[in-house]
Amino acid sequence: MKISVITLCAQLLSLLLSAHTVQAQSRRVGITPFAASRHSIILEVALEPELVVSLDYIYGLGALDRRNGISVGAGVKVPTTVISNDAWRLHLFTSTHWGSRDHWGANLTALGYLSHNRNRAGEIHGFGIELRAAPGFYGSRRTTALDLGWQGTLLSHIRHSAETRATFEDRYPPGVNGPAGPKDGWYGSTAHRFRIGLLGAHKLADRMALQVALGSLFARQKQGVFLGFDFAQIPVYLETSLRFGW
């Protein structure tokens, strides 16, 4: 009888250990290597094509499920090459991810932003939205997906500089009346930009992952011309980010 009790206890302990092992293994399977963290910090350095640094905080909503979930967050973005112009962007976003049991899925992000810049032409504040989608293969340690997106500054407030106003002086010949100068105020739909590329992510640790995205950024001009960009710039972006979760 004593041997039977010991045997029964050993079997129960073995069953509990097996259940714990299965649960631990199930947590390692997911749509992304880092989707099950309640809190996350993302530090990103990118070429767009100017050098940009951004910092984001993400909070996971509801149950922590690696295959499906919704999160919200906020962040700041600073182009370091024009930091003397007081250029920055603040943004709020929500993101959702979905995945199947065979690791195919997609991540969708909707973002609203406020941007600021100052140069010789004047000072501008822009309000816009950005949409990004990443359909692809999301393994337990590696991710490979498309990187698709659209960014639109839908409303801008412009305050022109004295130098800009000076360009209108003596612009018209005698007897010809024209605008006294550029008008300050609100302007609509001032910029649109599209992205298409590839991204890959690799799990470095249980709560840390590295992601790299490479592709093309291009604008559609009013004339319908695609690939609109400054001749001094290359319409290519490269993003490298580290994600820490807890």
Features:
246 residues; mainly beta; Porin; 10-stranded antiparallel beta barrel; 2 helices; 10 strands; elongated
Counting DSSP E segments of at least 2 residues, the number of strands comes to 10
SSE run: HEEEEEEEHEEE
CA gyration radius, whole angstroms:
26 Å
Q: Give the end-to-end Cα distance, rounded to a whole number of Å.
A: 48 Å
Low-confidence stretches: 8-35, 224-232
Q: Give the CA-based shape.
A: elongated
The CATH topology is given as Porin
Strand content: over 45%
The CATH architecture category equals Beta Barrel
Describe the strand arrangement of the main beta sheet, using strand numbers: 1-2-3-4-5-6-7-8-9-10
> What helical percentage do the residues reach?
10-25%
How many structurally independent domains? 1
Query: Mind describing the biggest β-sheet?
Result: 10 strands, antiparallel, barrel
Q: Count of helical segments?
A: 2
* Overall CATH class: Mainly Beta
Class derived from helix and strand content? mainly beta
